[in-house]
Amino acid sequence: MLKYKLPPLPYNYDALEPYIDKTTMELHYSKHHNTYVMNLNQALENIKIEETSLDEIIKNISKYPVAVRNNGGGHYNHSLYWSLLKPNGGGKPKGSLADAINSAFGTFEDFKIKFSNAAASCFGSGWAWLIVDNNKLYITSTSNQDNPLMDIAPVKGNPILTLDVWEHAYYLQYKYRRTEYIANWWNIVNWDEVSRRFAMYDTVDPYQAFQRE
Ligand code: MN
Predict the structure, then answer these.
(1) Which pLDDT tens digit goes with each residue over 67-119?
(2) Which of 37, 175, 200, 201 has the fewest CB atoms below 10 angstroms from its CB?
């Protein structure tokens, strides 16, 4: 059967310094993310699943074993996380995305505070999300490797921005200072990619980049 593969990292391990250090990036991508990919393939092999897209698996995740939920979510979430970072990123969103953020949250600064609070207050391991549902933006968070596309998610929507707040994402550099990692992360957000996702969310399958070969 076909297997999922670790997608290429779109920059070097040290490209996001000083905000995320090289060693964290190398371990996070080549060990943590790669392990989710390998374990997802093993979990799917164990249940002898027919050919199905990750999209369909995630949207019907309640029908699958917990190993598929954890590792399928891990693969999807990390693929998205890498794509939403870039060296010399940050700044502010523009155009229709900026308008939608202002409409939903007041100002960009208000949005930053609300999103940062969602990330900081996520208890234990999880993710903060900016999602689109019926043309409206929402901030939410999930535990472990769950995401807002899963049928078990309490708040559902199409993710256009996400932040990994598992300790493996920041602990080597920031130790217990999660709020400092969150504050610095704004400097490497790839707003062009967030805008692209915002524009396409209802017309293009958000999982098309993560299909099996
Ligand atoms: Mn992670």
Answers:
(1) 999 999 999 999 999 999 999 999 999 999 999 999 999 999 999 999 999 99
(2) 175
CA of residue 169 to ligand 1 center, whole Å: 5
H or E element in which residue 136 lies: strand 136-143
What is the CA(185)–ligand 1 centre distance, in A?
14
What does 18-84 look like in DSSP terms, one character per residue? TTS-HHHHHHIIIIIIHHHHHHHHHHHHHTT--S--HHHHHHTGGGS-HHHHHHHHHHHHHHHHHHT
User: How far away, in angstroms, is 37 Cα from ligand 1 center?
Assistant: 12
Q: Is the pTM of this model over 0.85?
A: yes
pLDDT in tens, 176-209: 999 999 999 999 999 999 999 999 875 444 444 4
99 Cα to the center of ligand 1, angstroms: 30
